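Margin note from the TA: students keep mixing up input and output lines. Inputs are the sequences; the output is the structure of the whole complex. Example:
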Amino acid sequence: MDSWFDGIVKDAVREAPRRYAQWDDGVFQMVALPAIARMARSCGADGEASRRLMAGYVAAMVEGVGLGYIPAPLGEDEVWPNLLSYLLVRVVPWALPRSTKGDRLQTLAELWNLGEGLLAEPMWVNRYVVARAEGLWELDCLADWLVGVLEPVLTPPPPPSWAGPFGVKRLDLGETDDHFLPGAMHLAAPSLLCVQHREQEDTFVSILLRRGGETSVIGETPDLGRYAQAEGAAEVEAVAGGLRIGAAAVELTHVGVVAELVVASAGFVVVSAEDSQLLWVVESP
Amino acid sequence: MTDPQELVLGWLVEGRAGVSAEGALTFAHRASPPLVEKLRLAYDWIASTAIHTPYQDMEFGPARVVGGQGQLVALHSQESYSAFILMPLLTLMTSRRLLFIGAPGRGKTTMATVMALLSGYTLEEARRGIQHGHPQLTQADLLGSPLPSQLIRAEVAGDIVVSWRRWLRLRVKIVDEYNRIPTKTQSALLSLMAEGYAELYEQVIETGRSAWFLTANDEQGGGTFPVIEALKDRIDVVVRCTPFHARFLDQLIGRIEGGSRPEDFVPSELVFGPEELDRIDAAVRAVEVPVAVREVLGFFVGQLDFCRRASSELSYMNKDTLHLSGRRVGHVCNEDCPLDKQENLCTQTETGVSARAYQTLIHYAKALAYFRGRAAVDTEDVRQLMPWVLHERLAPNLHSAFFQKTEHQVHLTDRVGWIRQLFDRAVAQHAAYQPLRQATMALKAGWEAGVDGLSTVELQHRMQAVQARMEDVLKRQELNGPVYEDLVLLKNLYYDYQRRLSQRRAGR
């Protein structure tokens, strides 16, 4: 460790066990310290501004470890449990020193407040946001980015008519994972579908259901939890070559034998087929 | 559904992080988590940092049993706790009295000190507040005394101002090696523990709500002085400290290298203020004890006092009758008693359970349910707590034929296992006995529903129904503990109806 921030770290860590019930020195050494070192390299030469920024970053890392926000080192297949830890450890050391905003400490404070605020939301919201954060390397407009990410899952869609004409979109989950075979499906939120890998019960792919043909694959996620929707969304029945929704027939090309079917009261029916990596997403107007 | 714009703006405006005027990143205090969450954090911190014990002897959930012939080990599916850590926390929550027993050097005083630190005392305050038992400890050492100048100046006793010891007002009171306190001084301690006050020179000090932690090195409570029975009886729970396990040798070495001790501090975010402890107390008391749990508990407790051979009078068929005549259960619990000694619980115990112990058990059960995040006590809470509440209160009948069987002899050395076995049998018997009790329970429910609106004729019919039920029970069922309890209940109901009829006739 470079000596110019060594003292900053020692001062911040000294009282940590006396403040935090969940202080884990191992996590600090293995996860936080390497990130702090990366941050020091990005900050560049010693100077008052760098010192203050480093002190602020170290304080945030100590607070994050002490409150249990920052996890132990992640395994190869593990995902970050929350946006705050992902940003603090992965993104901030690279992005914050390059921020064009005048006050980078203020950016760090806002990042913290957004991340900690998000932690109060249900787990599925956190996991969903983290899944969307891959490729986020710009911190200056984090609040706007977060609003954009949350909008499709938190804003209620207009009620569906279930009267047709129905749109059909096919999603190829093989593009996410060559070997992914869709198994059991469940809703984690009104517009969020979790699809379990038929052969690996801990592996899921999540789908964001959006009107106007905008349904998209979020990617591999952990199980985002279960959402219990009210009964009676629509009467849906699998028939040869497709579905019957109420009185309407909906053709699903190449569906073969329907394996699983989920009806979302947000206005979607999602169908998987045996021996296919495809999902058919039927959308009600 | 929520407006994401509003949500995100709220996080920015109300967030804890900010930049100070000096240009430093600062964090406002975090709102305290819910109290029950804080208690669980406290447990986790103690278990991971302060007291290292691998013995999880309060286990919940269905068990998978592993092992072949011989030793079996149960692996439970839900949470598990160490009684050595959880019971002191429950005692802090309920402001009751806990005794740690076990060999020296196993963390008894350390655990008690940690409880004091959790209540907000500094290490120095906690240490100074510990009362150390020794043969020269006097009442003045324990309570305080007036200054000599006060004694000289006073013309009447009421003029003397007592300089009370500071520890008397602490929320957590620690008495180390209480069995080394002389008998005369034990009486002063008894008054403090039992009544919550002490008196000297006509002045009284109230100790306020407090949790007591006592330690003793010898399981029998022996030591330099025998402990008076009344003082023993005021101890609510007894917890054994656990042996050290080599798994934690690295931590011990780390302490030596770092010059630290487990009781040096507790993290500031775990400290409970007096108002928080009061809120916990209120929340614990509000936890429900469902009827089903009360019934099982009542069924269990009712069997322990019963002794068919103590008297021919129903009201005196209990172990108190025996003891008052200088006899023991072993004198009468033999082949002359027709009850099956392997099935009936009454044979296993020398004593019954007092109302005070019953209250203690219920209070701790509420605390445990609260700690586990439940709105109501369940039978498992009672089962887990019972050995610690009854540890010193329930004595085995060593002469019982039950203990002559090889597989039961282990219960004579393992008090915890023995008490759990008693309760498990009671639960099984309660379930089996339920169909036979329905008519009795219906009569009880009839009284409890209220009888004010009944005519005199109806009251008489009810009384006759109770009598008929008693005759039926006496004719068909063997007089064992459960049947005895029901007969006492029925007799009581009979007299309740009789009293009500008398009142009607007297025009009241």
